[in-house]
Design a protein that fits this description.
two-stranded antiparallel sheet
Length: 160
Amino acid sequence: MSTQRTHLSVFSSPERYVQGRDATEALGVQLNAVGINKGTVLVVATATPRRLLEDTWRRVLPAAGYEPLILDFKGDCTARAVAAIEDEAKRRNVAAVVAAGGGQVIDAGRAAADQASVPFVSCPTVASTDGERGVVFLTGQSDSRASTAQNKLITNKCPP
C-alpha cells in the first residue's frame, strides 16, 4: 500500500475587494453588501487620512445606517496599540473596525478586529505591497505573526 502526499496551495483573501478613485464614497454601501450589521463602526485612522476623509465618513456611513466613531492612531502596531483598539471596539460594541492609513494602522486594525471578533475593513492610503488584501497581521517587538479568521474584509483604495 503506497501513501501519496498531496501538496496543497491555499489562497486566502478578502470576501470583497473594491478600488478606484473616491472608493470611500461607496464605503457604507459596501458594508451593507457584505452583510455587516448596522451600528457603530470604529474608524481607526492616522492624521492625514482623517483630515482628508473624515467628512466623507461622517456623510456616507450614516446614509447607509452606520455611525462612525473615529479613533486617532499614533505610532506603531504594537500589542499595546492593538489592545487599545480592541478595548474600544468591545466597549462600544462596534459592528466593524475600519483602518485608514498605512501598514501600521492597517495591521493594528486587522489584529484588533480579529481579537474583538468583528469584521475588518481596510482603507489603505499609501502605495504598498497589497497588504490590504492579506489576512495576516504583524505586530512589533516580541509579538508574533497571527492570521485572522474574519471573512468580511473590504478593501478600499482611498483617496485619489
